From TrEMBL:
<keyword id="KW-0012">Acyltransferase</keyword>
<dbReference type="Pfam" id="PF13673">
    <property type="entry name" value="Acetyltransf_10"/>
</dbReference>
<feature type="domain" description="N-acetyltransferase">
    <location>
        <begin position="17"/>
        <end position="181"/>
    </location>
</feature>
<protein>
    <submittedName>
        <fullName>GCN5-related N-acetyltransferase</fullName>
    </submittedName>
</protein>
<dbReference type="InterPro" id="IPR050680">
    <property type="entry name" value="YpeA/RimI_acetyltransf"/>
</dbReference>
<dbReference type="InterPro" id="IPR016181">
    <property type="entry name" value="Acyl_CoA_acyltransferase"/>
</dbReference>
<keyword id="KW-0808">Transferase</keyword>
<dbReference type="GO" id="GO:0016747">
    <property type="term" value="F:acyltransferase activity, transferring groups other than amino-acyl groups"/>
</dbReference>
<dbReference type="InterPro" id="IPR000182">
    <property type="entry name" value="GNAT_dom"/>
</dbReference>
Length: 185
């Protein structure tokens, strides 16, 4: 099995995903535009327009994404019918034997289609190849749609995390953890 871009291409195709690693400026721009569309649509009712714009600029601008990639985050674009339909990013911690999914966003027309579940499967497969013990992420605690999604997919809420992100804003999240059983590895 040929590994491409740190994800098994065969595994991604078997579960019906077209996934491409983001490394080039044009792909970074695509992720940033997609983030703007998804975040503005989904998060305005949860955290308000001002915080959405602040977070997009701070965390999902082309410059911010490039800096994250430079320190080890891996970004991936998800395609449906040759159209960018979502993205995800993770950061591996070999010392802790864990994978932090820092981003997992699907555009509205593709939500509830199983794509998020398939991305979790790709992350689990990656963990198996690296002998990682668990996957973790944070999710806004008022984003019940996403909290329920992660619970349905084997994650456990391990508690609240409130993080000051500047300009008077905080991320008010839950830390969600999925421990991989020995049989899964």
């Amino acid at each position: 099995m040929q590994a491409i871009n740190d994800i098994s291409e065969r595994h991604a195709e078997v579960i019906g995903l077209k996934v491409r690693r983001v490394t080039e400026p044009a792909a970074i721009e695509t992720v940033s535009r997609l983030a703007g569309d998804i975040w503005r649509d989904h998060y305005k009712p949860i955290i308000g327009e001002r915080q959405v714009e602040y977070m997009l600029n701070r965390f999902q601008s082309p410059d911010a994404i490039s800096k994250q990639i430079a320190v080890g985050y891996q970004y991936f674009l998800l395609f449906c019918n040759a159209r960018p339909s979502g993205y995800f990013a993770w950061l591996a911690d070999t010392e802790d034997q864990s994978l932090h999914i820092s981003k997992l966003y699907i555009d509205k027309p593709q939500q509830r289609s199983g794509l998020g579940r398939r991305i979790i499967s790709v992350a689990e497969q990656h963990c198996r190849t690296q002998n990682f013990r668990y996957i973790w992420l944070t999710v806004n605690r008022h984003n019940q749609f996403a909290v329920d999604f992660y619970l349905r997919n084997g994650f456990v809420n391990s508690g609240a995390v409130v993080q000051d992100i500047g300009d008077g804003f905080v991320m008010d999240d839950y830390r969600m953890v999925k421990v991989l059983s020995v049989a899964e590895q």
